[in-house]
Design a protein that fits this description.
The structure holds two protein chains of two kinds.
Chain A: H1 3-13, H2 23-38, H3 54-58, H4 73-76, E1 86-91, E2 94-95, E3 110-113, H5 114-120, H6 122-128, H7 139-147, E4 151-156, E5 166-172, E6 180-181, E7 184-189, E8 194-203, E9 210-219, E10 224-232, E11 238-247, E12 252-259, E13 264-273, E14 279-288, E15 293-302, E16 308-317, E17 322-331, E18 339-348, E19 354-363, E20 369-377, H8 381-389, H9 394-410, H10 416-431
Parallel strand pairs in A: 1-5, 4-7, 5-8, 6-9, 7-9, 8-10, 9-11, 10-12, 11-13, 12-14, 13-15, 14-16, 15-17, 16-18, 17-19, 18-20
Antiparallel strand pairs in A: 1-2, 3-4
Helix pairs in contact in A: 2-7, 8-9, 9-10
Chain B: H1 3-6, E1 23-25, H2 32-41, H3 46-61, E2 84-86, H4 100-108, H5 115-120, E3 122-128, E4 131-135, H6 138-144, E5 147-150, H7 151-157, H8 159-165, H9 176-184, E6 189-193, E7 202-208, E8 219-224, E9 229-237, E10 244-247, E11 250-255, E12 260-267, E13 279-290, E14 295-302, E15 307-310, E16 313-316, E17 322-331, E18 336-339, E19 342-345, E20 351-360, E21 365-374, E22 382-391, E23 397-406, E24 412-421, H10 424-432, H11 437-453, H12 458-472
Parallel strand pairs in B: 3-7, 6-8, 7-9, 8-11, 9-12, 10-13, 11-13, 12-14, 13-15, 13-16, 14-17, 15-18, 16-19, 17-20, 18-21, 19-21, 20-22, 21-23, 22-24
Antiparallel strand pairs in B: 1-2, 3-4, 5-6
Classes of the chains: A alpha/beta, B alpha/beta.
Chain lengths: 436, 477
């Protein structure tokens, strides 16, 4: 069976959720037709040159109807950053109200699951869902749009500030074996509003499954969205995610992507700066080992004047892992006074580790300041020597310097509990010592 | 940009004249017969014809690359003429027999085939349309054992060398334009520097496309034997014509153990008028292979051509080999350039340096596209890349597409790129010191390109700087 045929049968059998609006099946149909026409990307596709998704295409991942979970709150503890935060928990794609936490939110702020939102505010949803994440040329986005079952919808009205961060936890356990999940996230932050959210993808045990996530984020004039993503999937799993952001005047969008899990992962982070004075900060860290493969792709479109974009991505590659970074900055002829900076640094810990990086600039305006830099290498001999000369053993010196390499980018995380959790994870990974 | 700068004059392309000489031109079109005819006209041995035919057959199965960041009307390969030679060229015994018109052409271009360059210490091979019209300073080179002649002559007199190295760096199947060149190349230069010899003169080739609707497909092969060293410079011009002309050259460099080859290009093909009419399509494959302890250095100043598609590359095959790429690429008017380099690190402790300066003006589009690849065995490989772009005016574009692929953890790679506009305050400062705007800009641009110009042989560095000034005139807004 061809890869797309696997999904054809499933699509035919796909039931429209009860109470869903009439436009939904039409959108799904359109998306599925596009997916069939595109097929899975191959490495001949420039955007996928360094990442082969053949392992995903070859495996017949299927949508599943998971049973209610038997997990308890204590099982979730490793991933819960603060129990008092508003929290939505999905286990094997199924929303678990019992494990979720509903904190008090400003009255007008709406946080709902996609299935609830489809029932309760279909009109509002029809104006926003699928409007940013174009699937004309993006097979995985098309596939998600065709199959999206559940997810999270967040609407922050004008001028509202959500004080506490919001966490979305997507867990997979043994039941997820062979399953495909297509979670969807929609965030609309209206003018002068603020929200901070953390998406955590994690697994209990080593199942082989596919997560194909799509997020659409609107950051209106003067609004600010902090968007953190922690990807700690099972090392047998496949993870593809696409975030499409549009930003209004003087808006701020901060993204941080941490990738340590999955056999193969790909994160697309795209933002369009449509209003003057907008700021985009896209940072990330990938820590890989064994035969893991992680690909980050960013695309910042400077459409309006006087916007700033900052990118810092770092990779630590051990074993025979493969890290890919592809950052593209586009500056429209109208986007004068653009200030763009992009940096990618990769640290190779082992002889078999590989890295491919492609920082691109496409600039059509003259009054701009754009730079990018990329470095690849192993640990510098000189600091190693310095530490050794101070009586620190070779192994400890290496571990410390590796941690220091990661810390530079982790320090940019403004959410303290998350920063501490990731610092701890990285520290313990390399020093085998306690973080305390 | 302020209007003061906008108002600078646009100087005419000064090499746009046409020379009236009788030519021996075959009818347009490209078939296996054309390839046989070219080979026959050049009285080539059977093995070369066979090689050409293999290339031609391969070319027919290939498609033109579409990935470069340039747009142009489709090329009708059957509408071009694949062989055009000034009639008086064959058989050439001495320079005195060269058509005086031709010599005048070279005088106009500033290349004297005779005495002037003797003083400058440069030996010149001049290629007019597709055929070499004269190589100067031959006897002096012969004393040192250096072979510097037209490709056709090399095939006749040194077939063993040509057969050994032809296609060893750029195989005929390499890419669409290299295959086309391999099938129909008409002439070019051949250099062989024997073991341990440092070539006593700078070698130089001058390319000139004259005939209308003619493609120029020259092939250059440079072999530096063990411990040899040579510096080579090429320059190019073409008349102004309304039709686009095709130039698909191949340059191969073989740098054997401990040798050193420096290849400099000042490319000033006709770029088309301000509306984008006419101009040369410059689709060139240049590559060198550096063996143990060898060094290959590319320096290019690209100011001409309507479209440039060119990636001078180095395969760092041997241990401790060194590759360098220094480039200044200027686009103005409606020019488009997609140029850069490839550094393929195969041997241990190989080093490469890339310095690329792109200047975009008018409605020009300038792309740097480079690949640095470190293979698993390339222990201790080192690369430093710096590509800077300068934008002059708000209708041009500057793009950067670097590919960095590393499969060895002992490698150290650094890549830096920046894009900025020419600084108003820098211009103001110069003007306050009594320079006019035009001089201020040429001073700033010269400073921006200094790292590359210092790599050029001295007299050409001067020429390149002037050329840059001319290319940018009228662009500044």
């Amino acid at each position: 069976m061809t890869p797309t045929a696997t999904y054809s049968d499933q699509f035919a059998a796909l039931a429209t959720p009860a109470g869903a609006p009439a436009w939904l099946p039409a959108l799904r149909q359109q998306a599925f037709e596009r997916f069939t026409a595109l097929g899975f990307p191959t490495t001949r596709n420039e955007e996928w040159h360094f990442t082969s998704v053949a392992p995903i295409a070859e495996r017949p991942f299927k949508a599943i109807k998971p049973a209610a979970t038997t997990l308890t709150a204590s099982d979730l503890a490793p991933w819960i950053l603060d129990p008092s935060w508003h929290r939505l928990v999905f286990v094997n794609g199924r929303f678990e109200p019992g494990l979720s936490q509903f904190s008090e939110l400003p009255a007008e702020v709406e946080v709902a699951t996609l299935s609830d939102a489809l029932r309760e505010s279909p009109e509002w949803l029809s104006a926003h869902l699928g409007k940013l994440a174009a699937f004309d040329a993006a097979a995985f986005t098309a596939l998600n749009t065709a199959f999206m079952q559940d997810g999270v919808v967040i609407h922050v009205p004008k001028g509202e500030t959500v004080e506490l961060p919001l966490q979305i936890l997507c867990l997979a356990d043994a039941q997820a074996q062979g399953a495909a999940f297509h979670p969807r996230l929609l965030v609309v932050a209206e003018a002068q509003s603020q929200i901070s959210l953390i998406e955590t993808f994690a697994a209990m045990g080593g199942a082989e499954y596919l997560v194909n996530a799509v997020a659409e984020v609107t950051v209106a004039d003067g609004a600010r969205v902090d968007h953190y993503k922690v990807q700690q999937e099972s090392t047998d799993a496949y993870h593809v995610s696409t975030v499409q952001v549009t930003q209004g005047r003087d808006s701020i969008y901060h993204s941080f992507s941490f990738a340590a899990g999955a056999a193969l992962s790909r994160a697309n982070i795209y933002t369009k700066l449509l209003g003057t004075g907008g700021e985009a900060r896209l940072n990330g860290l990938y820590v890989l080992d064994g035969t893991q493969h992680a690909d980050h792709q960013t695309f910042v479109e400077h459409i309006a004047e006087a916007c700033a974009s900052r990118e810092l991505y770092k990779g630590i590659l051990d074993g025979s892992s493969h890290g890919v970074f592809n950052g593209k900055v586009y500056v429209d002829p109208e986007a004068q006074k653009t200030d763009g900076k992009q940096t990618n640094k990769a640290l190779l810990l082992s002889e078999q580790a590989r890295v491919d990086t492609k920082p691109q600039l496409e600039i059509f305006a003259d009054d701009v300041k754009c730079t990018h830099g990329a470095t690849v290498g192993r640990l510098d001999e000189l600091p190693l020597f310095y530490l050794k000369s101070r009586g620190i053993g070779a192994e400890s010196a290496k571990a410390l310097l590796t941690y220091a390499f990661a810390a530079e980018v982790l320090e940019t995380i403004e959410n303290d509990p998350l920063r501490l959790a990731l610092e701890r994870a990285v520290f313990e990974r390399f020093t085998h010592a306690s973080f305390e | 940009m302020s209007s003061t700068i906008e108002s600078l004059v646009n100087k005419e392309y000064q090499y746009g004249f046409v020379t009236e000489v009788d030519t021996d031109t075959i009818p347009p079109g490209l078939t296996e017969e054309t390839v046989r005819l070219i080979s026959k006209k050049k009285e080539e041995p059977a093995w070369l014809l066979e090689w050409r035919l293999k290339a031609f057959r391969r070319w027919q199965t290939m498609t033109e690359p579409r990935w470069p960041n340039v747009t142009y009307e489709p090329i009708d390969y059957q509408a071009h003429t694949y062989y055009s030679a000034p009639k008086s060229v064959t058989p050439l015994q001495s320079l005195d027999e060269v058509d005086p018109e031709l010599l005048k052409t070279y005088e106009k271009l500033g290349i004297s085939l005779t005495e002037q360059k003797r003083l400058a210490g440069v030996a010149v091979d001049a290629i007019f349309d597709s055929v070499s019209v004269g190589t100067t300073m031959k006897s002096e080179l012969a004393k040192a054992g250096v072979i510097f002649c037209s490709f056709g002559e090399a095939v006749r007199e040194h077939p063993e060398l040509v057969q050994k190295y032809l296609g060893s760096v750029v195989p005929y199947s390499d890419n669409f334009f290299a295959a086309l060149n391999s099938a129909v190349f008409s002439d070019g230069s051949f250099v062989y520097v024997p073991k341990g010899v440092t070539c006593p003169l700078e070698l130089s080739t001058y390319f000139r496309i004259n005939a209308a609707n003619t493609g120029q497909f020259e092939r250059t092969l440079i072999v530096a034997d063990e411990g040899a060293s040579v510096s080579y410079l090429e320059g190019c011009t073409a008349p102004k014509r309304d039709e686009h002309q095709l130039h698909a050259a191949v340059v191969e460099i073989v740098a054997l153990d401990r040798s050193s080859v420096k290849y400099s290009t000042v490319q000033n093909w006709y770029a088309g008028d301000s509306e984008g009419k006419g101009g040369i399509y410059n689709f060139v494959t240049k590559r060198g292979k550096a063996f143990t302890d060898a060094k290959i250095s590319w320096t290019q100043v690209e100011t001409g051509s309507a479209i440039t598609w060119k990636y001078p590359s180095v395969i760092l095959q041997g241990d401790n080999s060194v590759g360098e790429f220094y480039s200044v690429a200027v686009v103005n008017g409606k020019q488009q350039a997609d140029t850069g380099t490839k550094m393929i690190h195969i041997g241990r402790n190989t080093r490469s340096t890339i310095i690329s300066k792109g200047i975009s003006a008018g409605q020009g589009q300038n792309s740097y596209r480079g690949q640095v690849k470190v293979l698993p065995k390339a222990e201790g490989a080192r690369n430093y890349t710096q590509c800077d772009s300068m934008l002059i005016g708000n209708r041009c574009g500057a793009h950067t597409f670097p590919y960095i692929e590393v499969a060895n953890n002992s490698a150290t790679l650094e890549h830096e790129a920046s894009t900025s506009k020419i600084g108003e305050d820098q211009i103001f400062y110069c003007k306050a010191r009594g320079l006019n705007t035009e001089h201020a800009i040429s001073l700033i641009v010269a400073g921006f390109c200094k790292e590359v110009f210092k790599e050029l042989p001295m007299e050409f560095a001067l020429e390149a700087q002037q050329l840059l000034g001319i290319s940018l005139e009228g662009s500044v807004g």
